[in-house]
Design goal:
Distance between the termini: 21 Å
CATH class of the largest domain: Alpha Beta
CATH architecture of the largest domain: Roll
CATH topology of the largest domain: Chitinase A, domain 3
Largest sheet: 5 strands, antiparallel
Structural class: alpha+beta
Order of helices and strands: EEHHHEEHHEHEEEEHE
Number of strands: 10
Length: about 240
């Protein structure tokens, strides 16, 4: 891939998205254009400082108001509950590079249907089929709180549903899970005053991300960028 911004070739570090490299070069050139950076400057720290000064100067990020913070808090109260716990069991059908994924999913779905009909077989099938060490304990994961597992698994554990075996497989980065919820212990809502600063930071970060994307899109529209489409990038700066 040939990546360039206004005729200047842009190197992309291994493992880094090309959009990020192109956006950084675009911002570097803008910093040079308005006198925040010497054209020949190569020191990475100096470039980073100039870009930061540029964004502070040209990207407005309004501070969230008290009403906006309270509205977010009221609309997302579940985010501010502390102490939520569940007792759960699972059977993991692990997906690895060598695994036939459709075949593995079909096997997991067959097992799920068997358990929905005969839930008492959960421990036996966990011992026989699960690719998790917990299988030797009937699939028991013990008591789990928010933040203890990967997000996609947590979402399934804490969604509003009655105790018992979830009627759908849970797909995570590890594979397919059959999940049983044995008990839910609801948490308590943290008062707004306690989390007001956290809410304000979250809203400010969202506003800043949107403003940065719009700013880069405007610069890209005035430049010749080859190799990526920064205007179409979901978030070229925030990774």
């Amino acid at each position: 891939m040939i990546l360039s911004v206004n005729g200047i070739a842009v190197a992309v570090e291994a493992g880094h998205p090309p959009e990020l490299a192109a956006a950084r070069e675009l911002l570097r050139q803008r910093a040079v254009a308005i006198g925040l950076l010497a054209p020949a400057a190569e020191d990475e720290a100096a470039v980073d400082a100039a870009i930061e000064a540029l964004l502070e100067r040209e990207v407005a990020t309004p501070i969230p108001t008290e009403d906006e913070c309270r509205r977010y808090y009221e609309q997302n109260r579940q985010e501010f509950e502390s102490g939520d716990l569940v007792n759960a069991r699972h059977i993991l059908f692990q997906v690895t590079p060598q695994v036939n994924v459709p075949h593995m999913r079909a096997r997991a779905e067959r097992t799920l249907n068997e358990l929905l009909a005969e839930p008492d077989r959960f421990a036996a099938l966990a011992a026989e089929l699960s690719n998790c060490p917990s299988g030797q304990q009937g699939g028991n994961l013990g008591q789990i709180g928010r933040g203890d597992t990967v997000p996609e698994f947590e979402q399934a554990l804490f969604k509003l549903a009655p105790p018992g075996i979830l009627r759908e497989l849970v797909k995570t980065r590890y594979g397919f899970h059959i999940v049983a919820i044995d008990r839910r212990i609801p948490g308590k809502l943290v008062p707004f005053e306690t989390v007001r600063e956290r809410v304000a930071e979250r809203l400010a970060a969202a506003v800043e991300e949107k403003a940065l994307r719009q700013y880069v899109s405007v610069l890209a529209g005035q430049a010749e960028v080859e190799g990526v489409d920064l205007a179409a990038s979901a978030s070229p700066l925030v990774q």
